[in-house]
Design goal:
The chain is an all-alpha fold. It is built from five helices and no strands.
């Protein structure tokens, strides 16, 4: 299967997994995260975050990090931090809560992705 098709499948999976985990966090921990954005905009912001970072992870990052373990660790950390910064502004969250939210949704999609792929 071509690399680009694998990427599109991974992107669709990532967006759905992160939307699911984001919804769970918003639903069950509303007082902690205090996300001001509701409804379809909430899901749109999560989708945009994944669409902004995943192409770099798949198509740019491999040129700079050649070790597989370093690629996964550094790449996932980079994605979580960048998306956390994005969530600070899009969800109007304090930076610590935005980073926790980002690490949780990204960790979930990564862990489930390991099981599926």
């Amino acid at each position: 299967m071509p690399y680009e098709i694998l990427f599109l499948k991974a992107l669709a999976f990532t967006v759905l997994a992160e939307m699911l985990m984001g919804w769970v966090l918003q639903k069950f921990f509303p007082k902690y995260f205090g996300i001001a954005v509701k409804g379809w905009r909430f899901f749109l912001f999560i989708a945009v975050a994944s669409c902004l970072t995943l192409p770099y992870l798949w198509f740019v990052w491999p040129f700079f990090v050649h070790d597989r373990v370093a690629y996964v660790v550094a790449g996932e950390l980079w994605v979580a931090v960048v998306e956390g910064l994005y969530y600070i502004f899009s969800f109007k969250m304090p930076w610590r809560k935005a980073m926790v939210f980002s690490f949780l949704v990204n960790g979930f999609s990564f862990a489930v992705g390991l099981l599926i792929f």
